Amino acid sequence: MGTWEVGILDDDIALDIKVEFDEIMSEEKDVVLATEAVLESFSDSLEDEDEGPVVILTLAYLQIRAGNLL
């Protein structure tokens, strides 16, 4: 895992999540679908004590940005 600054997206996993989330949003325009896909793709990371919080915070940021915090 690489982190280079203190921002939410300044992390390798966060950027991977953003790419997947944004790709689904551009095709489907569905925050729920994008969130479910990310949670499935990053299920192993969710269980990791270092990576899990990154997944959750990144998803929250992306949902807020999309106007629908779940």
Short description:
The protein has one domain (12-66). The protein has 4 helices and no strands.
Q: What's the arrangement of secondary structure elements?
A:
Layout lengths: L11 H17 L2 H11 L1 H4 L5 H15 L4
Helix pairs in contact: 1-2, 1-4, 2-4
Structural commentary:
The protein has 70 residues and is mostly helical. Helix 1 runs antiparallel to helix 2 (31-41) and helix 2 packs antiparallel against helix 4. The chain has helices spanning 12-28, 31-41, 43-46, 52-66. The model has no long low-confidence stretch (mean pLDDT 93). The protein has one domain. It has four helices and no strands. The N and C termini lie far apart (26 Å). 67% of the residues lie in helices and 0% in strands.
Largest sheet: none
Structural class: mainly alpha
The overall pLDDT, averaged over residues, is 93
Report the uncertain regions. none
Distance between the termini: 26 Å
How many DSSP helices? 4
Helix fraction bin: 55-70%
Number of domains: 1
| Shape assignment | globular
What are the secondary-structure elements, in order, as H or E? HHHH
Please supply descriptive tags for the structure shown above:
globular; single chain; mainly alpha; 70 residues; 4 helices
